[in-house]
Amino acid sequence: MWDKPLPLLSLPPMKHLLSYLKQFWREAGNFSYLLATLVWLAFAMGIYYQLVQSSALLYQVLFQALVYLGTVGLAVAAQRLFYKQPIQEMNRFWVLLAISIGVLLIRKGFIYHRVWIKAQVPFSLQYWAEQLTVYGFRILIFALPVYLIWRFYDTQKGPLYGFSAKTFYPKPYLILLLMIAPFVWWASTTAGFLAQYPIYKANFAAAYLKIPSWVTAATFELLYGIDFVFVELFFRGFLIILIGRYLGPQVVILAASIYCLFHLGKPIGETISSFFGGMLLGVFSYYSRSIYGGVLLHLGVAYMMELFAFLQKT
């Protein structure tokens, strides 16, 4: 299994990323597995958006549990049928994936902090307090299990999964951000985009607390950004770098599939694109052994969306 980053110091900026993609296709490119994955995800999205999305939260969580398990089952079958390779340390592999699915379901289904806020917090503070609590909980539910596994369960000590700057070269990711920016700006002119962004909505918290409105907005945006860091840690660090030890580079397809299903409930275009984005970021993190590129891209796009939506509305 892949344990070392590719030595790319002599390559031009964008060729760093292209070399990762070529290496992935040589080692794990399998048309049959990719096709089966796309059919499975299309089926899951069709059922969810047609039947499940409008149902109670409990049924949404149960549905996601089933499709997560189906995705893992597909990956295990592909390992045997398409790659003809054993899964290393099968028991540890299943334990880690069970924990992963449990964490994702808790993040999806736990809403009692919202209920408490509506019952206990003054109305003028409810929106702001709810947003801070929701994003704080999201950060905690990804950060704590990953840290505990790294600290007490993982026998191969090293940097926390993907928190390594040794093989991180920011220039190609900055170039990608510049290439993406015009498309984000174009999207920000559409009604559908402006209905959802900026994420932070006008509220009464600053007036209630007698503080400048930029303070409440900046506090939210800080937590909003930190959440993306830990999304990358979980999906591109924990799933890719740790579970990749047992599955090999084809873990990228598994992690991208789980990442896609994680987006169920968001606009369907965002859910579909998350698979392809997850594939790219997964390849980059698997071969660089760093999540910093994904963090840079994720934060850059997220804050561009916030900024462009704000500019459009003002």
Give the structure's gist in a few sentences.
The protein is mainly α. It is built from 14 helices and no strands.
Explain what the structure shows.
Helices cover 77% and strands 0% of the residues. The radius of gyration is 20 Å and the shape is globular. Helix 3 runs antiparallel to helix 12 and helix 4 runs antiparallel to helix 6. It has 314 residues and is an all-alpha fold. The protein has one domain. It has 14 helices and no strands. The model has no long low-confidence stretch (mean pLDDT 90).
> Which class best fits the helix and strand makeup?
mainly alpha
- The CA-CA distance between the termini, in Å, is 51 Å
Helix and strand run? HHHHHHHHHHHHHH
User: Shape from CA axes?
Assistant: globular
As an assembly, this protein is single chain
The residue ranges in which pLDDT falls below 50 over 5 or more consecutive positions are: none
Instruction: Give Rg in angstroms.
Output: 20 Å
Number of strands: 0
Query: Main beta sheet, described?
Result: none
Averaged pLDDT: 90
Helix content: over 70%
Relevant terms:
14 helices, 77% helix, 0% strand, globular, single chain, mainly alpha, 314 residues
Secondary structure elements and their pairing?
Layout: H1 13-28, H2 31-52, H3 57-81, H4 90-109, H5 112-120, H6 123-153, H7 170-187, H8 191-196, H9 205-209, H10 213-242, H11 244-247, H12 251-262, H13 268-288, H14 292-313
Helix pairs in contact: 1-7, 1-13, 2-3, 2-12, 3-4, 3-12, 4-6, 5-6, 6-10, 7-14, 10-12, 10-13, 10-14, 12-13
